[in-house]
Amino acid sequence: MLEISRIRGEKEAIVEALRKRNIEAGDTLDQVLTLDKNWREKKLLLEKAQEESNRIAKEVGLLFQQGKVEEGNQLKTRAVELKGQEAQWKTEVDFFEKEITALLYLLPNTPVSEVVAGKSAEDNQEVFSHGSPRTFTFSAKPHWDLCKEKDIIDFELGVKVSGPGFPFYKGKGAKLQRALISFFLDEASAAGYEEYQAPLMVNEASGIGTGQLPDKEGQMYHDATDNLFLIPTAEVPLTNIFRDELIQHPDFSFKLCGYTPCFRREAGSYGKDVRGLNRLHQFDKVEIVRVEHPDHTARALEEMVEHVKGLLDKLELPYRVLRLCGGDMGFASAMTFDFEVYSAAQEKWLEVSSVSRFDTFQANRLKLRFKDHDKKTKLCHTLNGSALALPRVMAALLENHQQADGRVAVPKALQAYTGFDYI
Hints:
Strand content: 15-25%
Largest sheet: 8 strands, mixed
Structural class: alpha+beta
Number of strands: 16
Oligomer: single chain
Distance between the termini: 48 Å
Order of helices and strands: HHHEHEHEHEEHEEHEEEHEEEHEEEHH
């Protein structure tokens, strides 16, 4: 959530930044500032009434002790009037505060200066690439055919038991899935991330804290009875560990990781782009999360990007890194790097990771603060990234490592985890 203090002092800069997202926010920000002006006026009246009430309460006692009953009763009458005024000002203060928050929930984060304006994925910038798309001397098969031929992932059984987007992993497919999870977690631990096993359901406050709510209700599975949401990513429970926290010193850097299943309704998804493992309602992912001092955010983001590069290098996959344009970034992001692996049989790039910095946007919602060197209370910065999401990594492994003899080679980095070299 954008900070109201920023809007007061940097309105035009915010308007210009949000234009990178193709959003004209001037009118909304004007409404916020008008409501803020009214809120501050009522807040001042409320505080003055409360101060006078406190003063009168002390004076009334003294007057009665001194036997000045008539004067004491007059002040008591005034105290009753003030209580009525306080209730009125409190109601108005709360009203304006809620109206401001409702408007701020509609505004996405402002992109940082390095992010370019753009409307769609076509405007994203490639900033790094590794390896070349593989060429085959034989007829390469898409992963869904390989899965059926090797009997390692059963999509039809998933439809029978649950519905589309809920596949069964079997035999060596299940072992490869487990191997990837263990490999990603071990690599994160080696990089200094503390591992957590997080809840798979969160409350509404947690969804609001990281920006999924009220923006993405249609993409989240919701239990209305208990008002709980199945997580779309481990980012939500891991980041909410810090909700309402005040870190007491400025020399902090929190690095967390966690494996969880992830659940996304993906309403409206259909067609060839969702075939096989390309887009699922339930999938596995290892997430890395960081909470940092604002001075260290850029360095932390670079470290996270390098971490994901290292994973893909060890999986022996061709990949590229894109810096997303303003129009293609997520709601809460200030800057995002997408990692895409090349699907050799589908002849297309598949996103396997997004690594993002959110600056104070999530921290403002979370009320996540720290005491800086100057003893002032400031908002922390948050970051997260997929390291990695498994379905498309699995698809890319199967397609890129298929051999002329029909087998699929397992990358060396995974062989100690799988116990086999080929499928």
